[in-house]
Design a protein that fits this description.
The protein is of the alpha/beta class. Helices cover 21% and strands 23% of the residues.
Length: 624
């Protein structure tokens, strides 16, 4: 059972009470007007002609009964899922065991596949984007998401649940992009706080749901955004917003769309991640289909909850699309079909319209004559060379994401993070280099490393800095990271996989209690080639991400001492990508050593018929 009482915070209780009051009157927080032609007393986004703020595309939002086929005529509804694009505009190789190096993804290739699905199901499809979209590459970073938005605006997206990284350019930019209904953005768990918006405190930032009428089927589209905001950067990125993380709002809104809106089909778009979404679907009946993102897991075989909800997670940098077909008789779903698609860019041609838009968005960033310098909106550095510049070379494939039953499981370690942690440590001349276990990134084949590859790994404007910490602080961080990835209460996960380290090695027992998973921790001090046991009372230098807006923290560790920020030879502010580029120039060819974290026991077996990167029910303490 989920330990809700132990986890709920006072602020959540206040907000949930306010939400319950709003539900009782069918008025969203901060909105009291009814929609013309909609349900009496319902908010403007709940129905009415045009389907609320979900945007164009199909006869969305007609009152029930209007244009419905009679009686028990068989009908179909096809749902198409994309997600976790993370700024990937063009194909990238898949170096994992399920890819064998083939090129996958690319928005122009994805759109061709979507068009084929829509052509096979005329006038009965809905296209959904399940989040983490406008962050993850140089083109996205330097345009604050606009390069990705301009392309995806052409897709005709019907519903969107924002991911935590969709807030990376700040609250005002998020509201500018999605507050007016772009892509049918929905989120029942993101509120304005009184910190920056006292006049709107307690209001929902986005509607909790929208309604669509497709092929005579009345569809409710509910949304949940990630609960984590952007912990990796700090609260400064989402000032003025409050995120709740228990899903307590969900049963109330299910009741609204089922009993007030008279929905025939309820679809939940959720960026809580697959593990938490399975929990939600098991707890709360009334959801027909749950489309998930965040964990970068994949479900070639759908998962069914104890309540019969079909659950899908598809994305992986835009390399996957899921297709769900609901077969209906009258207002009842009689069966569900599921098809999994890999966007194999060598066999699926690029759609000309989208390919042209991708080329236009990339033109100012690449070396074919269109490159222009760009200002980094987070750290104010300047991009001074094309992103297709070769920065260095690797003798091994760089990526993170192996399945949990394979060697070097992605939840534990990956060559890409080993490489980056090595670079941070080297350029800062620190004992320890570290990077959070970000699930996003890319795959780089042996050979050239391009600048745009580095931006896929580090797309959030960090600088690199060095501080002095105690051995106990390192031990605490490693234990907290392990618990945040393996706790058997998935609602206590902290996001991402285990941190990546350089100059550190250790044994990890995932079945040990919290605080005892890491043993035999050793550190190699800078300038030596000798491993020594970690001394909890000794001082060590430590390098990682640093942001000027959060100046006393380096990679999540707080210091009251000196912060030594890595700069260029002229003492100028340097983006982390340039720090790593300088490391590549000095090294020539990199080949990071793996096996830094020695897994003492195999991780639990897969649960639902699909390979897993992160065990979907965590790891039970003491239970192999």
């Amino acid at each position: 059972m989920m330990k809700q009482a132990d986890r709920r915070r006072g602020l959540d209780r206040v907000l949930h009470a306010a939400a319950a009051l709003a539900l009782a009157t069918l008025i969203p927080l901060g909105a009291a007007s009814a929609a013309p032609g909609g349900v009496p007393g319902a908010p403007a986004w709940a129905g009415g002609p045009g389907g609320g703020p979900g945007g164009p595309g199909g006869p969305g939002g007609q009152p029930p009964g209007q244009n419905d086929p009679p009686g028990n005529i068989p009908r179909q509804l096809t749902l198409i899922q994309m997600g976790d694009i993370h700024g990937h505009l063009i194909p990238r190789p898949n170096l994992r065991s399920d890819g064998n190096g083939q090129l996958e993804g690319g928005l122009a290739h994805m759109y061709t596949l979507i068009q084929e699905i829509e052509a096979d199901n005329p006038r009965r499809t809905l296209l959904f984007n399940t989040g983490d979209t406008i962050q993850g590459g140089a083109e996205a970073l330097y345009t604050e998401g606009q390069a990705v938005v301009d392309i995806l605006d052409l897709f005709g997206i019907d519903g969107f649940a924002p991911g935590n990284w969709d807030y990376v350019y700040g609250t005002e930019r998020f509201v500018e992009l999605f507050g007016s209904g772009r892509w049918g953005a929905v989120a029942m768990n993101v509120y304005y706080s009184d910190e920056l918006y006292p006049e709107r405190a307690g209001e929902l930032v986005l509607p909790p749901y929208i309604m669509k009428n497709v092929n005579g089927i009345r569809v409710a589209i509910l949304g949940i955004s990630s609960e984590r905001a952007i912990n990796a950067l700090g609260a400064w990125r989402t000032e003025g917003l409050i995120f709740t993380g228990e899903g307590d709002e969900l049963p109330g809104w299910i009741d609204v769309v089922r009993n007030q809106e008279r929905a025939d089909v309820v679809v939940l778009l959720s960026e809580y991640g697959l593990a938490k979404n399975i929990d939600l679907a098991n707890r709360y009946p009334g959801i027909d289909v749950l489309l998930s993102s965040d964990m970068h897991e994949e479900t070639p075989e759908p998962i069914y909850s104890t309540n019969g909800t079909l659950i899908s997670e598809a994305g992986q940098d835009g390399t996957q699309v899921a297709e769900v077909t609901l077969n209906m008789r009258g207002k009842q779903i009689v069966s569900k079909e599921y098809e999994w698609h890999t966007v194999t860019s060598e066999s699926i041609p690029a759609h000309p319209l989208i390919a042209a838009q991708v080329e236009e968005e990339r033109f100012p960033f690449v070396s074919d004559g269109g490159f222009q310098p760009h200002d980094n909106p987070i750290n104010q550095t300047v991009l001074e060379r094309p992103i297709d510049t070769v920065e260095g070379y690797t003798a091994t494939g760089l990526y993170r994401g192996n399945f949990s039953q394979e060697a070097l499981p992605g939840v534990i370690e990956g060559t890409s993070h080993d490489f980056l942690a090595d670079a941070f440590r080297d350029q800062a001349e620190a004992d320890i280099g570290s990077i959070r276990g970000f699930r996003y990134g890319t795959h780089v084949e042996p050979g050239e490393i391009l600048l745009e590859d580095l931006f896929h790994y580090m797309p959030v404007g960090p600088q690199i800095a060095k501080i002095t910490i105690l051995g106990q602080q390192l031990k605490n961080q490693m234990e907290n990271s392990a618990d945040g990835a393996f706790n058997d209460d998935v609602f206590l996960w902290t996001g991402g996989w285990f941190f990546g380290y350089s100059g550190v090695r250790a044994d990890l027992d995932p079945y040990a209690p919290k605080g005892s998973r890491l043993t035999n921790i050793e550190v190699m001090r800078w300038g030596t080639n000798t491993w020594e046991p970690l001394d909890l009372t000794a001082e060590y230098t430590y390098a990682g991400y640093w942001f000027e807006q959060n100046p006393q923290f380096v990679n999540g560790i707080m210091t009251t001492g000196e912060v030594d920020v890595v700069t260029d030879p002229m003492g100028m502010t340097t983006d982390a990508t340039d720090v790593v580029s300088r490391y590549l120039v000095e090294q020539g060819i990199v080949e990071p050593v793996t096996g830094r974290i020695n897994l003492l026991e195999p991780l639990p077996p897969y649960l639902y018929g699909n390979p897993e990167i992160q065990p979907l029910q965590g790891v039970p303490v003491g239970n192999l």
